[in-house]
Amino acid sequence: MQVDKALITTLIEAAMSADYTGVRRIGGQIAKRLAEQNDIEGAKALQSLLRKRGVPLQASGYAEALPRDAGSRLPLVEEGEWPTTPILLGNEAGHTISQFIEDAQNIRLLTEKGVSARLGLLLYGPPGTGKSLLAGHIAASLKRPFYIARLDSLISSRLGETAKNIRGIFEFVPARNAVLFLDEMDAVAKLRDDRHELGELKRVVNTVLQGLDSLTDDVVTIGATNHPHLLDPAIWRRFPYKVEMTLPDEDVRRSLWHHFLFQDSDTPEEIDLLARASNGLNGADIENIALAARRRSILGNQKPSLAQILLAVQSSRVGSPRLLDNRELSTTDKKALTVFLHEKGGARVADIANIVGVSRQMVHRYLKEAEHG
Ligand SMILES: Nc1ncnc2c1ncn2[C@@H]1O[C@H](COP(=O)(O)OP(=O)(O)OP(=O)(O)O)[C@@H](O)[C@H]1O
Ligand SMILES: [Mg+2]
Questions:
Q1: Strand partners, 220
Q2: Which of 233, 234, 251, 333 is most buried when burial is the number of CB atoms within 10 A of its CB?
Q3: Has residue 144 been placed in a domain?
């Protein structure tokens, strides 16, 4: 093939600015020329190269110019890392997610057959249930770069700036064959307070809708919110796939404890008891308590007892885990733990005595005191 200076210059320019879309477009033109010159083999080889996914920009070591807020100069999106810890999900959420990933991987075929749905997934549920982590995992499974935009940080006090910021995101991400994660979606609804005029809320919602509608079918967007009821119904409808992220059920809690605590030495009965006793806590709480236990075991001179871990669980509330220390259990602790294991842990008297480190008679006495007290 004859060297076409103009084509090669634009190709190198696109490559140097990590512009995959540009590289693909120019590559396509070159392949076409090869085919015209009857180099069918060469054209095919080039086309197969062009079908490959680009590496994430971060992995390429290329720090690119992110769109920024005009006032604060803070970036409007950040590139997140692919997670290194697993996401543990219940069956129902797991099924929807695998389906979503399968659809995303086969979007070309589905579009060809005219049955594609917009690749929009909404994750909703209380804090600490793994929404952000899951979004990162989806990007990793799809081998796409992961861009995070927090809607609350896009909202600017300067008039008109918010809509501009939102448009900036929707223009930036699609060209990068990336996963766009819109976190804190409900921030938009919070504009409904009196500091903002009503017209502004409407304008911002419309900008989000326009942004979502401007995306082609192959762009993956994942939205997350703790307050789905605050979400504008029109935005809600733009996400065909929805997954409610609930507090973990007993099976998931068992996996969480198993993963985050001492994986090597925990006996199944201990994990079962922890799973029952931690009903009502979220994944982040369990992670925090378990990691605190491991820290104490590394820095203290001995591994925390099961009783100390259970006591931390007993005194934790969802969203505010109590981190354990290496303190000896006081009588008050022992009583509280006994009642807790009896009522919530469903443990037998002999097991309670064993864990708390008191006689069976004492367990009976504590329970009786609690009943009458
Ligand atoms: N189901 C889970 N599986 C594995 N780890 C979990 C799970 N849920 C929570 N975690 C742990 O808790 C951390 C916090 O979770 P994450 O930030 O993803 O929650 P979130 O739902 O996005 O919360 P928020 O609504 O506050 O943003 C995770 O990074 C992970 O370490
Ligand atoms: Mg989150």
A1: 179
A2: 333
A3: yes
Q: Within this chain, do residues 83 and 224 fall inside the same structural domain, yes or no?
A: yes
> Which tens digit of pLDDT belongs to each residue from 276-331?
999 999 999 999 999 999 999 999 878 889 999 999 999 999 999 999 887 889 99
How far apart (Å, rounded) are the C-alpha atoms in residues 180 and 102?
18
Same domain, 217 and 87: yes
303 lies in the same domain as 178 = no
Residue 252 CA: which ligand 1 atom is closest? Answer: 1
Residue-number span of the structural domain to which 11 is assigned: 5-51
Residues 290 and 228 in one domain: no
Residue 186 has pLDDT above 90, yes or no: no
284 shares its domain with 368: yes
Q: Which of 64, 250, 343, 369 is catalytic?
A: 343
Does the annotation count 81 as an active-site position? Answer: no
Q: How big is the CA angle at 56 (ends 50 and 61), to the nearest 5 degrees?
A: 115
Q: What is the mean pLDDT of residues 364-373?
A: 91
Lowest mean per-residue pLDDT among 38-42, 92-96, 158-162, 283-287: 158-162
Ligand 1 is surrounded, with C-beta below 6 A, by: 85, 87-89, 127-133, 226, 245, 248, 283-284, 287
Instruction: Return d(Cα 208, Cα 155) in angstroms, integer.
Output: 12
